[in-house]
Structures are given as structure tokens and as C-alpha cells.
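G., the chain you wanted modeled:
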Amino acid sequence: MMLRWVISLLFLLPVHSLPIAEQDDNFRRCEQHHEDNPDLALQYCTAAIQSGRLSDEQAANALNFRGRALTTKGDYDRAIQDFKQALSLKPHDAATHNNLGVALGKKGDLEGAFREYQEALRIKPDYAEAHSNLGANLARKGDLAGGINEFREALRLDAENADAHYNLGEALARKEDLDGAIVEFREALRIKPTFAIAHYDLGTALDLKNDADGAVREYQEALRAKPDFFEAHHGLGYVLKEKGDLDGAIREYREALRIMPGSANAHYNLGVALTAKGSKAEAAHEFAEAQRLDPRLKPPADNPRQ
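Predicted structure as C-alpha cells:
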């Protein structure tokens, strides 16, 4: 199971002077697209920043918006640069501290992220998103109790925060409170029905509760929202095998391997399904490939889930 984190970023090009009306339009479009279209956001935010005619507050906002777009695109180094430059202009902006925390966390700097979330909350104690992100940071470092407290505080402040419900569900699942996790995953999906990872983790929790039909439905919903979701194809393959649908299981394992050919576990579980189907030569090939990728995997007569 996985914890969810969010955000984006980029860097400056040569300065060109633009008419004031066009500058205003660039800034407006930068703000408009920083969440829904990162490529357009990068274009318009960069043009606004390069104009040299923004106030310090506007420039800080444009850098923050561009940083979010860059984070979405996975360019964390330049996102961090933009967030830090924004904070040099507007040091007490809680949202930018939070966004910098997200980018640092994506880079693996958990302590740096922790400091930024704390600073965001010092400036704005009722900032639900920062509480949720701090909770994810704590849970990622193994402090599940601290993480759960932060997720609950985020939800006290904003009961409709789908990410906080999801993160709380993840932490509860890690504490083996599957019933509590299922409640939180379902709340996240009530708010955000196309939340692919929440469908996947709900499916996994239901499978662990021996609700195979419910697990199949959730894995299928995850794939409807995100068709190339390796883990959902792999999980669906396993549950279909449990239900006796070997053809369906083989199909899903093959689809998982199309997405991630180097998965030893997927090759192994495909071998198990092929063995059950009677396709021993194909199964032997899959077991051999699994063992090549991970020498610990031996071809068994009957295997547990990998």
C-alpha cells in the first residue's frame, strides 16, 4: 500500500517586455491553469515572470503557481528553486511553504519537508492540507500514531478533504485496522469518485477481508480511472485466480507485464495461473523469467501471493 503526496515546478527564460494588458492576461492564465494544465501554466507563468512588471506579491504567486506545475510534471529541482524564490519575496506564505514541503518530500528530503510543513502550520494553524501532508510525512517515517493525529486534525478542519481520508485509510491499514481503513477509503471515493489509488487500496483491503467480489469491483474501478495502473492489473489477476477465473487472471497478469515487464512477482503469479490452466510449458517459461529477475523465487507446486 502507498501514501499519497501532491504538487509541481520549472525555471526562467530571457526577459521580454510585454504590453501591460498581455502581462495581466499571462498572470491570470498562469493562475487559471496551474492545477489543470501544467504545460500551459509553465508557458503563461514564465511569460508573466519574465515581464519584469509584476509586483513582488504577484511575482511570488506566479513562482508558486509555476512551482506547482513543475511538481506535477516531476521536475522537483526546479520546483524547489521556484518555491524558494517565491518565499524570498513573500516569506510568510503558508501555501508556498506547504508546496515546498511537497517537492522536498518527492525528492526524498523528509526532514526538509517536515520543517516546511511545520512552518506552514506556524503561519496558518488551521491549514488542513498542511496537516494532511505533515501526517503523510510522519507516517512515511514510521510514526503512524503521529500521522493519524495529523490526518484527523486535517479532517476536523476540512471533512471533505479526499487526500486526508485516503492517507488516514493508508495509516489505519498499516496498523492492521482494515475496517477503519475501508471506511476512510470509501469516504475519499465519495468525495473523489475517480481516485484510482483509493479504489486500488480499498480493493486490497476488501480482498484481505475475504470479499473477493468487492475487491474485483474496486480494482476494475481503479483501472477505469487509470488504465495503465500496474498494481491494479496485478491485484485483479490475483483475485480472479482466487475466484477460479483463470483466463481472466492470465489476461490481467499479461497486461501487468505489458506495463512493467521486469516484475518478477507478476511473471511468477502468471506462471501459477498457467500451471492451474494446464499450460505447463508456458508456466515453466514464466517461472524461469521470475527466477532470473529474482533468484529467491522458486517454482512451487502451489504458491502464496507474491
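The chain has a mean pLDDT of 90.

Shout if anything looks off.
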